[in-house]
Amino acid sequence: MATSLDDTEIDDYKEEIEDNNCLLCGVLCEIFYSKLVRPTRPTVLFGEEKWKHRRKAKAEHVIVPSKEVEEGYFAKYPFSWSAMCRASECPKSLLGLQYILTDTVIKQPGTTKYFLSGITTIESAQLFSYVIPKDPNVARIGRKTGNLQYDDTFIRFHAANIERQPSEFQGKNIGFIVHAHCWALFDYIIPTALVEKKLEKFIRAGRKYWRNNRLWGIQDWEQKLWKAGHGRTHNQGFEFGCDIYKNPLIVPEVQKVVDNARKTKKEYKPPRCSHVPLEVATMIAEWTCPVDYTADVKNTRNMLLAWQWTFPDWFWKVRLKEELFVELNSLRESNYSIDWQALRLDLMALVSDQERYLSSGLPNRERVIGFMTAIKSNFLKTA
Ligand SMILES: [Zn+2]
């Protein structure tokens, strides 16, 4: 990943960090520092189209199915996703001797076991604990205020530290945090149903990865301030090569392309290059669209249309990192009739347009998928 920081600067960043980093993407789970936009306040998330009807209820918080969050793009305040998290929790932890076993959380056999919680929105506050629904299938929108009591469908926990646990957490519930959307994206890398059965192994795999890779707990203050000001000032650019606050799971630009492919419902065309041998057709296409294309794919699109050529999968796969487009999985599994060539050309048009590509959030997805792939590999290697 491109970064303009050297090691000393990263250390400076890390002095500022708190403990609630997402174990999957390394970025802090938090709200942005803006008095107007605090996703823990019901007024913010109830302002999103899908939850508008909740406003009338005047409830401080409501419980919704977790899918509503995981599948949701927050059009009004897109960065709300970064405050919505789950936790792998360990009720009543018994901490290890930290100065000797810095990476070990020892649990009392039989009494402590990690479980995956539901979703809540959180605000960063190092010394405070968080309250989260226990049920992984639900999400809490908004927040209870005042002295209202939580019933036993909620659990209070302290956000665990990726490196080592502070001694004051001894005997308290601790939880490793993941963004709700990062957890859903992780399901494309490795089935989370499998990970859920071995959460302790997952936590070890994640912590091992981040201890060896220093880009966790990073913050891009310029971006944060820019977003908190709703983009009214000049954008200073990206500290870490891309916008780390873009939602890595929901990329509206890709969704648009996929929805369009679904609607078009074109017939599947088998590879066909009229009377020209395939080798010759690909040589001609290579000229208008080389493997490392930087220009728009308009000429390629026109050429294929004019000559009615359909190239086989391998032609496209060397030109498009399809593993990045997780949305294609459901298309492959569905019965939709898809014009794959047109779909791939649309995605290539998005990738080749640097400005569109950077603002789409895809580079952040690529960054996060890189971490997830490494964490998966640690997970599979961990005994
Ligand atoms: Zn994350």
Automatic annotation (TrEMBL):
Domain of life assignment = Eukaryota
Provide the protein name: Uncharacterized protein
